[in-house]
Write a structure and sequence with these properties.
Layout (H helix, E strand, L loop, with lengths): L1 H11 L5 E9 L4 H12 L8 E4 L7 E9 L2 E6 L2 E8 L4 E9 L5 H16 L5
Antiparallel strand pairs: 1-6, 2-3, 3-4, 4-5, 5-6
């Protein structure tokens, strides 16, 4: 995924500033049950190449095209960067990664917003 993201950034975005935001939730719930939460709350269960409008509570809606899609991975390329949602059943984790390109972003505020969203979706009942 990370090499794909790097290639997408070079292919679609002009360059700096680049800001990455990562939020991780830990849970003991099964991965397929956890995955249903982000899909329902984002308002989309799209296929590769589909245009989507994501609506995560507490964050601005984001429009883009699905550029990564696996059973527990959703990647959306927006006009200003990349947004990734993943569930790792083996390690009991769910994560969001947002990479913003060419726009100023308050990393602390975005991290807190994604972490709050992820905690509500996943339940964050881990250690």
């Amino acid at each position: 995924m990370f090499l794909h993201d790097l290639a997408e950034c070079f292919r679609h975005f002009a360059g700096p500033p680049v800001t990455s935001v990562v939020a991780i939730g830990v849970t003991t719930r099964p991965g397929d049950e956890v995955w249903a939460g982000p899909i329902a709350r984002l308002g989309a269960d799209p296929a590769l190449g589909e245009r989507v409008r994501l609506r995560p509570e507490g964050l601005d809606p984001a429009e883009g095209v699905v550029d990564l899609r696996e059973p527990s991975l959703l990647g959306v390329r927006t006009g200003h960067g990349l947004i990734r949602f993943a569930v790792d059943d083996l390690h009991g984790m769910a994560s969001t990664i947002e990479c913003s390109c060419g726009v100023a972003v308050d990393r602390d505020a975005r991290t807190a917003a994604w972490r709050s969203w992820l905690d509500r979706v996943v339940g964050n009942d881990g250690p």
